[in-house]
Fold this sequence. Notes:
Blueprint lengths: L5 E5 L9 H15 L3 E7 L6 E5 L2 E6 L2 E2 L9 E2 L4 H11 L3 E4 L4 H12 L4 E4 L5 H4 L9 H18 L4 E4 L2 H9 L6 E3 L16 H7 L6 E6 L8 H9 L7 E6 L5 H10 L6 E5 L3 H10 L2 E4 L8 H8 L4 E4 L14 E4 L4 H12 L2 H14 L5 H24 L1
Parallel strand pairs: 1-2, 1-7, 2-4, 7-8, 8-9, 9-10, 11-12, 11-14, 12-13, 14-15, 15-16
Antiparallel strand pairs: 3-4, 5-6
Helix pairs in contact: 1-14, 2-3, 8-12
Amino acid sequence: xxxxxxxxxxxxxxxxxxxxxxxxxxxxxxxxxxxxxxxxxxxxxxxxxxxxxxxxxxxxxxxxxxxxxxxxxxxxxxxxxxxxxxxxxxxxxxxxxxxxxxxxxxxxxxxxxxxxxxxxxxxxxxxxxxxxxxxxxxxxxxxxxxxxxxxxxxxxxxxxxxxxxxxxxxxxxxxxxxxxxxxxxxxxxxxxxxxxxxxxxxxxxxxxxxxxxxxxxxxxxxxxxxxxxxxxxxxxxxxxxxxxxxxxxxxxxxxxxxxxxxxxxxxxxxxxxxxxxxxxxxxxxxxxxxxxxxxxxxxxxxxxxxxxxxxxxxxxxxxxxxxxxxxxxxxxxxxxxxxxxxxxxxxxxxxxxxxxxxxxxxxxxxxxxxxxxxxxxxxxxxxxxxxxxxxxxxxxxxxxxx
Length: 402
């Protein structure tokens, strides 16, 4: 039986801040802790005073940090000078392996200290520059846009080309980082999902009253940050074309800097009686919203995997999504949903109408979603990471014996 590990994981965005990489990292960290490993998370806090909490058997060090202007994620912070604090974690915790989930300040310090202490580093990339740049008022493909894109990728490559193992959630994500100059071999490992958690259930009446849900209508659901790159505006435009063709309700969960604009679009398109903005929804209620919906919608063009799509599939929902980045690896056109041309509201409306009009088709695609999501079970993800960790712990032992 293999010894349990001491794993240090670093990430610049961790719950309660809502972000795909943070949620994926939290699921992996808590999953590893359940399997008996000692897991420490180092992430930014909310003040200049560091804090330590035990969260789901994971020790979370919230490093002192400064808030970032709200160009993207609400509540996002950076720890600009974290080296001394991370050095303290190394000294006290003595990790066997370091796992970075990005290339920012905390992870950069951890990589430097790991090398100094001859500890191997695994890096998982959930990053593209577009999540940040697309929320700036900069014309896409302009000179300034391309310069910022190049700077972001430069810092990523500077870290990830100098670690021991690189992973990323999808084949599309792997191709992106190789195309920008990553020289390391890349392992594709899904973010993973506790599939049992999202199986169909019967929500209580309170969920219907709280969000004013009318199940006599076709229920569409969108679950994401309400930032510009998620392109919820495309979905509103598409649904405005269907007002006179089907009776529907569109539930939009989440918060973000684009919410006010989306509310204006809803008013302009005369959709106020069809759209429900829920704001932030806790996990238990989100699971209920998945279970009572008929079709999941997303127009995002920047997904390196798509956690909300995975959750929708685990809940047995067919999906209508933009044909972009890694989304086709989850949504198989005509099998468990439909793909539309990114940004094309007319194409999206046609696909939505086709699926909404035929219950038998939705039932067929629902079964396929449940079948296809099985390969993304979190236990498989955890096992693959454990294999990588143990392989490199073994390498360290061999070096130390010679």
